[in-house]
Amino acid sequence: xxxxxxxxGQPKLDCGGRFGNMASVGEFNSFSASIPATKVELSVSSIxxxxxxxxxxxIDNTLNPDFVRKFIMDYFFEERENLRFDLYxxxxxxxxxxxxxxxxxxxxTLGEIVGSQGSRLEKAIAGIPGKKCGTIIVTAEELxxxxxxxxxxxxxxxxxxxxxxxxxxxxLVFHRSNEDGSFTICHKTExxxxxxxxxxxxxxxxxxxxxxxxxDRTIKIEVYDWDRDGSHDFIGEFTTSYRExxxxxxxxxxxxxxxxxxxxxxxxxxxxxxxxxxQNPYCNGIDGVMEAYYRSLKSVQLYGPTNFAPVINxxxxxxxxxxxxxxxFILLIITDGVISDMAQTKESIVNASKLxxxxxxxxxxxxxxxxxxxxxxxxxxVSSRGKYAxxxxxxxxPFRDYIDRSGNHILSMARLAKxxxxxIPDQFLSYMRVRGIKPSPAPPPYTPPLHVxxxxx
Length: 457
Prior knowledge:
alpha+beta, metal ion binding, metal-binding, vWFA_dom_sf, Copine_C, repeat
């Protein structure tokens, strides 16, 4: 059913659709904003192939595409909104559809899609007379008013090896769940070549696309090994939710990648790899901190903007679980950038001031750090939305003030360490006093066993 690519010899797919009175996309004028309307999102996939309301992305070498790109439309209950979906086999990079092979089309209305069971319409593609041309599946979902976006990054460890002459070329596919138990694709990552321990690039996605604002909605993430011919090998999958993902990197966000077929066949099967950091987030002493730091240098990617609030909130979640004074948390932030989420950071500090934690900020480099002084509440207590911090928990130190031009680095580093830790004792004691937490009774003095005393005598 597909014509070969005239350049590569491989079939490709491009699709699209038109609506209203069958005018072209450029001629379309939206209805007046004064008419009540509901915004719906159209997701397109097909059983055998597929769609231009704009255009979907092109998916190479497949008869069963599932398109990531969505189309947002205004749905007017009282109006008849006609849609046409045209299917093309893309043979070149030309944007002119007449240069590509036309494979078929489907006519329907937006109301048909919205009114179908589960708002999921399945319709045969009309194309070549006398031949079955496949089926189009279009799903509609009413959009909520959530405008938030989230920046996420994933890594994996010890994935299954799928390539005979190499390792694997893994990528991730994200799906959000639907009420009928089906899933709608919402994102694909890039492919990381020849590795079983990939670190994918950070990406920004709207919360609406990920879960339509429902933080507890199931999100399924599949892991595939990319193949040039489009027959990508399934490695495994796991499920989570936006609420879980929003916790950030922690022991809560480590998932086993499971291949159900392997699990059913092999009794000793455990998993096909993990996502996230499989190591325990706690470190044992300074040596443990240094080891974790050097290990993270191999995978952590530095980027802007400089947002403090997510880091502070992450530590605050740990601190909020300890209320008996048995633990006190100290967050050290080393930054070379000017803070870019000042309002959110102030709010985080105000909330954290009630918890057993302190924050040390070390500014490195020539950047302008005046805003950091505002967070260090030595003179004026930090406030947010008219609410002041319960106590001062921030100490800011600019590293450049401690560079000894004479070359005496030992002395300069000693001064830095002293000033970095200068306010911690008072901050610690202020928390304990406010909570009425008193030190545990001192243990009795050590008395050597009697036989030892006799020996010494």
